[in-house]
Amino acid sequence: MSNEELQNMRKVVRLAFIRIGIRCDMTGYKYLCKAVEFVIEDESLLHNLCKKLYPKIASEFKLEKVGTVERCMRHAIENTYCYKSFAELNAMYKCSIYTIDDKPTVGELIHLVAQYYLLGLYKEA
Question: Which of 12, 84, 85, 90 yields a CA-CA distance of 20 to 30 A from 100?
Answer without folding.
Answer: 12
